[in-house]
Amino acid sequence: xxxxxxxxxxxxxxxxxxxxxxxxxxxxxxxxxxxxxxxxxxxxxxxxxxxxxxxxxxxxxxxxxxxxxxxxxxxxxxxxxxxxxxxxxxxxxxxxxxxxxxxxxxxxxxxxxxxxxxxxxxxxxxxxxxxxxxxxxxxxxxxxxxxxxxxxxxxxxxxxxxxxxxxxxxxxxxxxxxxxxxxxxxxxxxxxxxxxxxxxxxxxxxxxxxxxxxxxxxxxxxxxxxxxxxxxxxxxxxxxxxxxxxxxxxxxxxxxxxxxxxxxxxxxxxxxxxxxxxxxxxxxxxx
Length: 287
Ligand code: SF4
Hints:
Layout: H1 3-13, E1 34-35, E2 40-41, H2 57-65, H3 108-116, E3 134-135, E4 141-145, H4 150-155, H5 162-173, E5 182-185, H6 199-216, E6 220-224, H7 226-233, H8 239-242, E7 246-248, E8 254-258, H9 261-266, H10 271-286
Parallel strand pairs: 4-5, 4-6, 6-8
Antiparallel strand pairs: 1-2, 3-5, 7-8
Helix pairs in contact: 1-5, 2-10
The protein binds iron/sulfur cluster.
Iron/sulfur cluster binds near residues 97, 124, 201, 204 and 205.
């Protein structure tokens, strides 16, 4: 992507581009600061800006090749399960909370049919339609969000509202399209009023997402938002502590955590951090 086009996307995102002083006379977009010696990417600004995290680029590339360890997350077994905001208890990967049985051996059409008819939790009563997932079924990058909102519930597709438009713009800015990635959510039905999913709802729906991950076999999962990260990684740490580190899904897929686009719409000053996360992901996928 040429610099002018990328800059236009960045401006649309509200990500402040900075320019090296010695190049101020001929402005160009400079990517979020990268310390080339350490290989660390510092989200959100020039090298003099406070580091907001960052993981070694080489580590991510190695993890994608499967020849490097990934830092474990904090012990999930010690987390409270019954308190408000607690994450869903991890289910066995071979089982799945499903209305009509175990989705773990289903192909794409059968899985979509099972989700469309699912009544495994109370959310089936209030949904307009289920929101299965969209994109390339053999994508290198899988993006996992939280749950459908009002637009998604109406249209049956994930990330189609304002947050989805922002996600699409961010993908474009790193040279990806929605069609090149696979996008899904922790929940396939909208919680009323966009409330957070309960642990029981997330657990009931987990088998579907797990089967999607098994079918896509992505090289990397980008987990957007706390609900997604908490359920994928069985942790209750805030996104601010989870991003900038490399995690691993129980299926072995490396996971990068960043902010949900809806949060970025409320807190635009955080966009640069997610932009840095996405850029690092795109670089790693390009090898
Ligand atoms: Fe089924 Fe998931 Fe919808 Fe609950 S949210 S009814 S488990 S598809």
